[in-house]
Amino acid sequence: MKIGELAQHSGVAPSTIRFYESKGLLKSARSSNGYRQYNSDSLRQIQLIRFSQSLGFSLDEMPSAATAEDGFDHDLILERLEGKRQEAAALLEQIQRKADRLNSLITLLNENWAEGQCLPAQTLTNLLDEANY
Amino acid sequence: MKIGELAQHSGVAPSTIRFYESKGLLKSARSSNGYRQYNSDSLRQIQLIRFSQSLGFSLDEMPSAATAEDGFDHDLILERLEGKRQEAAALLEQIQRKADRLNSLITLLNENWAEGQCLPAQTLTNLLDEANY
DNA sequence: ATTGACCTTAAAGCTGACTTTAAGGTTATA
DNA sequence: TATAACCTTAAAGTCAGCTTTAAGGTCAAT
């Protein structure tokens, strides 16, 4: 498989695939003309990268392709997943608070601000005080 | 008030205040020596910027200091807040799915992977398939 | 008079995950 | 044989929201 085909199959741009390789996350064989050659393992590896990203891992947090070949350490992996679970829970709370602030602000504006009127900046900063931020 | 004092009162670095001014979000008077002079309105304005950020608005989405002086348009503000509410709801779902993926992956690993063992890469990509990603 | 803590500007640097550009080599098709 | 559609590299550009740097001016206290 050439890089364009791998791009098609994985849904990831060729430039991105080269970028992952430059970060050490992916290895590639070369054919005689210098083109990169891939197989189904390469596709798996890309899927693993995207999956890990979807869990909140940055590219730098991922083990290099060389390291990954030796298999993964049980305790280390579970520890990191647990860490990400906690991060996700914290993020969830944070976004929830944001949504709450938006909801109360919308309610507040609908109650205190007649349609067609123009809200003076002062009133808005008062609302800001009420929103308790 | 000089910029350092405003920084103290607002909890925002002087460089950030200058940055906000360069983006047109903040205006400043100057004293005879060229130093920026602020008042309590400046503090309000900064609080409004941080509050708007906390609702998910980018700096570019915020009206410039000049525009804001004329007051705000009811329909426009409510429309944008509603937009952000929907964005926040979508984000909330997305993070929730991430947390779910993390939870099922942790469960899956605990069930299928004895402590002290080393997980072969192949097994991990199988789990990836099971995680249905 | 000098030190140190402030202030000024424009411009460059930082983060992460890429994309784009420039300059060129390869291959299949018309 | 020429043209298009691929591929290669290294290096620079993108985004947002800042921070840092460099080179200097101001001011209060010693």
Automatic annotation (TrEMBL), chains A, B:
Pfam families: MerR_1. The keyword DNA-binding applies. InterPro entries: DNA-bd_dom_put_sf (IPR009061), MerR-type_HTH_dom (IPR000551), MerR_fam (IPR047057). SUPFAM superfamilies: Putative DNA-binding domain. The keyword Flavoprotein does not apply. PANTHER family: MERR-FAMILY TRANSCRIPTIONAL REGULATOR, REDOX-CYCLING DRUG-SENSING TRANSCRIPTIONAL ACTIVATOR SOXR. This is HTH merR-type domain-containing protein. It comes from Paraglaciecola mesophila KMM 241.
